[in-house]
Amino acid sequence: MICFFLTTHDGILTFFFLSCPRRDNYNEKAMKPIYQKLLPSSEQSFIFYEEELPHFIVPWHYHPEIEILLVVKSTGTSYIGDSIKTFGPGDVCLIGESLSHWWKSDNEYLEEGSNLNMNAHVIQFRQDVLLQFISLPEMAPIRLLLERSQRGIRFTGNSRLKIGKMIRQIFQENGLKRISGLLLLLEAMSNEEEFEYLASSGFSKSIYTSDFERFNTVYEYIIQNFTRPIRLEDVAQQAYMAPTAFCRYFKKRTGKSFSVFLYEFRIGHANRLLVETDIKISTIAHECGFNNLSNFNQQFKKVTGYTPQEYRKKYKL
Fold this sequence. Notes:
The protein is of the alpha+beta class. The chain has helices at 107-110, 131-134, 140-148, 157-170, 175-191, 212-225, 232-238, 243-254, 258-276, 281-287, 293-304, 308-316, and strands at 2-9, 12-19, 34-35, 37-39, 47-53, 61-62, 66-73, 76-80, 83-87, 92-95, 101-105, 118-125, 153-155, 195-197. It has a six-stranded antiparallel sheet. A three-stranded antiparallel sheet has the order 1-2-4, with no helix packed on it.
């Protein structure tokens, strides 16, 4: 079923055009990122809105606006580029232009009759609105920050608390004070050292090219099949290419080989299972497409810098 729908946030119109499966047939792994058109009101150059709903409603999507999001209330899973992370109250992320993302509330938020609800502060703006400002020498750190945001940034530790407090303060202001607050927020973000990148290197440059549909078909195939062995010949067939040509194509668009990309994607899913569940590590390895526990441990440490046991102990606490 094809759906066209419109939502509003404080006078801001948002249009979507996407294929909508029935709720009972919904399959998050089969989703393609949709383009989100944001229309700020005539009184705004930047979009500021507080969202309070039963759960996050926007599916996997992208837009040319840079987004800052503070989760006030809700738990769930964020899909940002090829990153899969859990989120909760207080989490702050900076998402670069045209980087696909999805904030998916946990299933208990989606159940009929649930008394749970989500709340988030969202700021969205186009980089060209800041063009005159960011060309100034004093804005060099902010220019670098916006470049780095192409991979998605999640702030951690004390930085998470500091940035979250500043966002809440911005939403208490109006007019020029709100804009000046945003500039100070971006400056603070550019100076913080406690953060992590979300999408892997090169991902954000890989899917919005002239052959978007071909790469997206490959990416969707990976999402649907990463829990079991994927042969190079099978994934190359999705792009209607020979394996050797596909390897060159994939490396050119992602900056990494297909095997490295697949390992990192699987490790991202393992991160979520280690933090969210008490499943045995050997079982997690199998569910993430690793048939060999030793190989899983080796690849996990290579990607994260921790063994699976160390990662669970550090982040589950």
